[in-house]
Each structure stands twice: as structure tokens, then as C-alpha cells.
Amino acid sequence: MAQHAHVKYHGKRTAFAVLLLSGTALAPVAARAQAVNAGTVSANGSAYVPGATTAPTHKKLFKSGTTTRVLDRKIMDAAGPVGGAAQILSYSPGVTVTGYGNTGSAKYTITLDGVQQGWGGYGGFTGTGSIGVTLDGIPVVDPSTNLWQSNTIPQTGMIQSTQVTYGPGNPVNRWYNNIGGGVEYTPMQPTSKPGGDVNLTYGSYGQKNIEFDLRTGLYDGWSTVLAGGAGDGNSFRTAADGFKSPNENYSIYLKTVKQFSAGNIQFGGYFARSAGYRVPVIPTTPQAGVTITGNPGMAGSTLYSQQTSGYDSALPFNTYEKFDTNAMWLVFAKENIDLGDATTLHNLTWYENITRVHSRLNDLYNTGPNVSEYNSPHTNIFGDKLWLSKSFAMNTVDAGAYYIHDTYNSRNNFYNVADGGNKGVVNIGGKIRSSYFTQDDFALFAQDDFRPIAALHITPGVRFVNFQTGYSNGSLQDFGFAPGVVLSTHCPLTGAKTKGNVTDQGASCGANESRSGVEPSLSANLQVLPWLALYGSYAESLRTPSVGGGGGLFQKVNPNSYHLELGQDFQGGAKFNVEDDGILHHFLAGISYFHLRYAKQSINYTLANGNEITASGSSIYKGVNMYFNDNPLYNLFVYGNASITNANYQTYVTGAGAANPGTSYSGSKVPYVPEKSFNVGAYYDYLYHNTLLEPRAWVQFNGTQNLFNNVTGAPSHQTMPSYGTFNLSFKVSAPIILPYAGKKSIDFKLTALNVTNNRYNEYEYISSGGYFGTSNGGYLLAYPGAPFTIYGSVGMHF
To answer: Angle at CA 671, nearest 5°, toward 306 and 307?
Structure first.
């Protein structure tokens, strides 16, 4: 990298973090323990302390009236040793993960039964931000934008289980954007006995990673866990000049629990940062003028496309350079107090900060006064949730409320140094925004888990929700201005406009809007046989439309048209649970039908130039999900997930206005929803003397998906091909005697992903020509999936 000495890569910082974390190997700590099955005992056999967050047991899942999939450590390991939180989710039925990288440093978009969450810098996903995401029960989705940046959970060794809920779920567990479902990432928890783990990985494209956790055990009523990790490496896409688009990430998590006679109190904190160079999309076929040195580029330059410059090729640093950083930190406190008479008081309080810095300095395809970009949005969030749980002879009642306040700033500057601009100074011909949104979310909720007989659970519930959104423009106070700059102004409330030589994407007039609604729900579970339960649920959920970016409500669209989006979700099916009967030992399986009507959608799609297309519509998502896992032999673990999904727009109208009915694409397929997907895997343990050998194999498949068309600003009938990967790993575990520490364990693991080196694209869309500055559109741009990669890991467990 000598020829790129000016590159903003922080490898030294990561190396220092790795060195610091590696020092923990000298203490009684270690990494990545085996799967925690029911959520009451940790991997090393030490019980979790009361108050620790645990995954629901097989029994609880079996008797629940909702559809829930829990991924333990064994299943999560299929994401690979450097995969992030998003990749884990691809091993739950109906989940598709799309991204531009293959590590936790990159950002990904996930779809759950067709409904989308996450932002990887590409569009066409029109069910935006309607999946809730929590970390140890704390929501980590921005309440204003409704988006979760997946690389704010880049290290997965600290995650002990992942819980995926299909549909809004019961009121006590629902947050402000759970229309399509929810995801809970549960980090390592405090245990009654001390212990720890450390795991180091090295592999393809120079990827290095270290993960660790340290558990103090109980001491004078206190128990604490500290877990973290750091990694860095290069992209699998390499440019002709040798630039490898390096990336890095690190995170750390701390939680302590204090036990006392009436319950427990908990304190915790989390910090994560991910950064890296963003490799751009690549044309699938050569396009005139699109070369690796720009458009039109230097004479004789290679055309940039999968067919000409290479399937996984990237652009030289001096042609295109974009550096992207995401960070999140939060602190929290939880209280669980026994009030007597079978009543428990629960309280959760947290503060959270989310930041992003997106810097683009080189782009030889789009020269001009806004060739460079400095995008630095940030959000500050405070929340509190208080509720009571009361147990009676035949029912358990939960009732409470939460309040969340956040302030989101959408700051962005498109500029050109040659025209007098920089990241804080606006030049003539530039484009800016610095919109401030305040979001206040309030909910009252109650539910009653009624058990008239032992085999039947009926859970009615209700929520009253209120969403308040405020808007103001901060461009004049947040930017400096080059001589001669005149800002354009527009007010969507009145239609008033003034011309200028700089586009302000924010509205010049402030506004405040408030909307409320009621969300009823009902779930039921009937155990018809000891091993078979039938269940069903119906829930309505409301969500405030997403704000921010370069358009949408308040900035471009009259806020008087603000309405709450509505989800009407039905889930129904059968669950199977067999413990130690014949060849079935810990068998858990389920099959469910789902039907979601997602109405009153505000659909905003961001183009490559920072502008937005705004549409409205409603959509129907329906299909079948299936899953299973078991130990048919004491030393054989198998799992599988499958999904069939059909997603269509009931209505989809773009370009509508006061005097324009817009263009309708009703009946179109929802883009980027595979019709079929599945994954299946098997792990086998073989004990040779005192050494455990564990080969693993698993397959993942995603079916065809409809594309989004930037030319029309709407879904397309064109599809992208299906794709799949075959993966292998081999692990050797053995005891080891350490001085002063006694008998511990060490393991060595080799993981190979996409063993057949299958070439495929994870994402494609139909370009309008703006990304590479071509006069024509209609061609495909893509993000290729990762080729064959291999990683070696060594872990120690204390």
C-alpha cells in the first residue's frame, strides 16, 4: 500500500486494539464457547445469574403463540469467523442478506419475509426499516430513519444467541417499527462461575480477527462479563492499481448484575466502530465510456464491467474513493424488583448515540461542483420502559409503557474543492442538507397470557401508540459558504420557492406533526399432543414513516400528508418438540403460514446522486416458513430452514402530485424477495482418545428475485438469477495443561466458505445511467458475492 500513503486507513489503531485484547490470553479468559441451548446454563456449564438475558427454552418456544426462531452458537457459526450480525440472520427461514462485503465491517440489507431493514448504500428495497432490532433488549434502530446499520454489531463472538420473531409479536416485546418482525441479539451474560474464552482468526484477503470474553463469576452478589473483538483486512474485490479497499472494526460490551433479596439491578455499556473503503457497484456488461480510469477515461483504458475488467474487479483509488465509518455507543440500566404477591417491577433506561461519516473524494464518473461528498449524520436517543408482571392462578398479566426521544441530524455536503468548497464549506453549484428531526415515541401496552387448561395459552393484547415528529432546517448555522453562494429555498407546506445556485434538499419551513393509534393483537397455542402444538396469531402494528436522506416527508413532501404506516399480520402453523424419544433427542421444528398486509407505505428510494424518488403504496407478503434442528445421534447435530414467499404491491404510485395522478405499478412484485430459499447443515463429533474431531458441512440457497428499475423508479418484471454456496469446516478440540491454571481446552478450526467458488451476484439493479455518468440507462449494475474464502482459527477456553 505504499502507493496509497494518503489513504485514511486506521490499521495501526486496530493492530493496537488487537495487541491489547491479545494480552487477555495471559489471564483466565477465552473466546467463542459452544452453543448455549436453553438459556439457563452457559457453555462451560456455569449457570447464568438471575436477571441475565437468556434465549427462550425449547419448551417456551413450543408453547408460544408466535413464530420465533432461536439461533444458538452452533447455527450462528455458519456465518463464518469474520461475518457480522447480519450474516447470522441468513440462517433463519425467510431471511435474505445482501451486502457489498463479507465481513462485519460492511453494511448489509436484510429482508425478513420480504420486509426490509438496514442500509448498504443501494436501493430498491421498498419496505424500509420495518424490522425491529435489539441488543440485550435495547432497541438499536434509529427512531427517526427507522434504519439499523448492521456494522454497528460487527463482532459475533460476543453474541450468545439470536432470536428472530416473525410478525410484530406480543405487545410487551414490541417496539416502534416491528411491522415485519424483530431481531434480538443477546450478548454474553454474567455467570455464577468465572471463566472466559479467546479466539484468533486469520484468512483470505488478509482478514485478521480476535474475540474474547471474561466472566468474573459471582462475588459478593455481583457478576460481570466483559466481551469484545477487533478485526481488519481487505475486500475480496481488488483494483487494477492493487488497491484492496481495506476495512476494520472493533466492539466491546460490559454488563454487571447485582443480586439482592428483592431482585437485581444491572448496568451495562456497548461501543462499536466499523470503517472501510466502499467498493462501488460494477456493470454486468461493458458500457461505452465506463472505463477503470473514469468516463470517458484515458485512451486505451479497460472497460469496467464483470465481462471485461473481471467479475470481482474494483476501481483504482484515484478513479473512485469512498470511505465509510459507522459507530454506536450506548449505556443502560435495568431493574427487576419483586414487589411481593407474585408481582415484579421491570425498568429499562438507556442512552444511545449513532454516527456515520461517509466521505467521497474521488469520482471520475461524475465531475462538477458536487463531485465530492461529506455525509455526517448523527442521532442521540434517550429511552425508558417501565412495566409490571403479575402472575395469577391461570394467567400472567404484563402492563406498562415506554417513552423514547431522539434528535437526528441529516447533515450532508456535495462539494468541489476546485470551486472553493470543502466538507464544511458550500460552493456554487453544490448540494447540501442539514435537517434536524426530533422524534418522540410513546406507547402504553397490556397483555394477558391466559391458561384455562394446561394445554392452552391464549394471549390477547393491546397497545396505544403516539408518534410526534418535529422538523427544522439548520443549513445556515451548520455550514460555511463560499463567495457568491445563494441557497435555493422551498416550503412543501405552502409551495413557496426561491431560486439559488446551491440546492438545499431540506425545506425552509419548520413543522411538527403528531399521530396516534391502537394496536390490537391475539395469539393462541394449543398442545394437541405431547409433541405437537397448533398455534396462530394476529397483530396490527403502526409505524411512523422514515425521515431523512435527500427527500421524503417534511423536506420534499407536505408534512400534512403524514400518516402512520399499518401492518396487519397473521401467523399460523404447527410446532414439534421431542426430547429423548427414539432417534430424536432435542428435536424442535416448526412450519408456519404468514400473511402480512403492509398498508399506507411511504416509499423513499435514494438515487446515486443523493436525490430521492418518493412513492406510496401497499403490499401483501405471504408464504410458508419451515425450520428444524436436532441431535438424532448424541454426536450428530443437524439443522435446516426453508421459505416460500410471494410479495406483491396492491398499489404502487410514483410521481403523484396535486395536478398529477402519478404512474401506477400496482400488482408488481416487491423487489429483492426470493421466491424460495433454504439452508441445511450437519455437524458430526468424533472422539479419538481425548481429542474431539468435528467436521461440518452446510449449504445455502436463494432463489430468483425481481429487480428495481431506476429508469422508471419502480419495481421491474426482470429478475436476477438464483445462487447458492457449499461450505465446510473442520475443528479439532483437545485438553491442555497450563502452568498455574490447570486443565483447560484448546481448539483449531479451518472454515471454507463457497468451496466451489461459485460466481454470483448478491444484488443487481437497472441503472438510469447516473452512477457512472452515461447518457444511456437500462443496463445492470451489481454487487458480486464473495468467492471461495478460507480461514484458520485457534481458540482457548478457561
So the answer is: 5
